[in-house]
Design goal:
- The chain is built from two helices and 19 strands.
- By secondary structure, it is mainly beta.
- The protein has an eight-stranded mixed beta sheet with strand order 1-3-6-5-4-7-8-2. Strands 13, 14, 16, 17 and 18 form a five-stranded antiparallel beta sheet that branches. Strands 9, 11, 12 and 15 form a four-stranded antiparallel beta sheet that branches.
- The radius of gyration is 25 Å and the shape is elongated.
- The N terminus and C terminus are likely disordered.
């Protein structure tokens, strides 16, 4: 028989956090384990300033004797993220599951899938939170009216949480005569979790890219560095009709960003071409 379960924050993350803060950590014998944890498909979690970022989580729960995967009510188990503290304290201060569901695959083993929600307004209060977070897990077993056993474990799993970045572009003049200069400006900004707004990214290496009219791919023309305020500016010679954009590859703390394309009509440029610039 298969058994499913869904829950909200209070059901899993809240239960783990409350017990971690109030119950003795010594009660950890024969509690069970959580394994095979995969957060966001192994990719970094990139978070903006206000929108809650929801990512998928997969994991497997193995229960001790006396507990059945098909009977989910006597147990709570699941992963959470934390950094800069211990697994026990991280269960109360880290980022837990917002919803989940489990299916029994054997008498004492359940395969679970859920959602981990990162709210930058509450979970990320400093830009230093853009770092590598540890994956921990908690297992809580309940008796008749109380917690019977529990444990909180730091795994070898790691997840990067990064600041969302965005870029803008403006290429002018439009139109422009062939052989004349085009000035391409723009900006590169990223989420500031302390101010809850977007601020400029200073001294970032950003690629200026061009896509000739009638082609599908962008090619890098040159690389420039952003100013102290995140401003971008450079000049190129008008040769062909096409789109200009800025592309930032990102850092370990900051997600990548690509602006939309800004089309410039070049008078006297002729028809479509296949390749305008060679790849660097």
């Amino acid at each position: 028989m298969k058994a499913g379960r869904t829950g909200a924050v209070a059901a899993l993350a809240g239960a783990l956090a409350l017990s971690a803060l109030t119950a003795p950590t010594a009660r950890a014998a024969d509690t069970g384990t959580v394994s095979g944890i995969v957060v966001n498909g192994g990719k970094p979690i990139v978070v903006g300033t206000t929108e809650v970022k929801k990512v998928p989580v997969l994991y497997r729960v193995s229960l001790p004797a006396g507990y059945r995967a098909a009977d989910p009510f006597p147990w709570n188990a699941g992963p959470y993220l934390y950094h800069g503290t211990t697994a026990v304290k991280g269960a109360g201060s880290g980022i837990g599951m917002s919803e989940y569901g489990c299916t029994d695959v054997s008498e004492r083993v359940a395969q679970c899938a859920g959602t981990l929600s990162v709210d930058p307004r509450y979970d990320l209060d400093a830009n230093g939170d853009a770092t590598t977070w540890t994956v921990g897990y908690g297992v809580v077993l309940f008796g008749d009216d109380d917690i019977k056993s529990e444990k909180y474990v730091a795994t070898s799993g790691r997840v990067q949480i990064r600041r969302y970045a965005k870029a803008t572009v403006n290429a002018a003049p439009e139109p422009v005569a062939k052989g004349k200069p085009i000035t391409v400006t723009g900006s590169l900004k990223r989420a500031d979790w302390a101010k809850h707004t977007y601020t400029g990214v200073a001294d970032a290496s950003v690629r200026l890219q061009f896509r000739p009219r009638g082609t599908a791919s962008y090619y890098t023309v040159k690389t420039v560095r952003s100013s102290s305020t995140g401003a971008l500016r450079t000049t190129v010679t008008a040769t062909l009709d096409g789109d200009w954009r800025w592309s930032f590859g990102g850092w370990s703390t900051t997600g990548g960003a690509v602006s939309s394309g800004d089309y410039v009509d070049v008078s006297g440029a002729g028809g479509n071409v296949r390749v305008a610039y060679a790849r660097p």
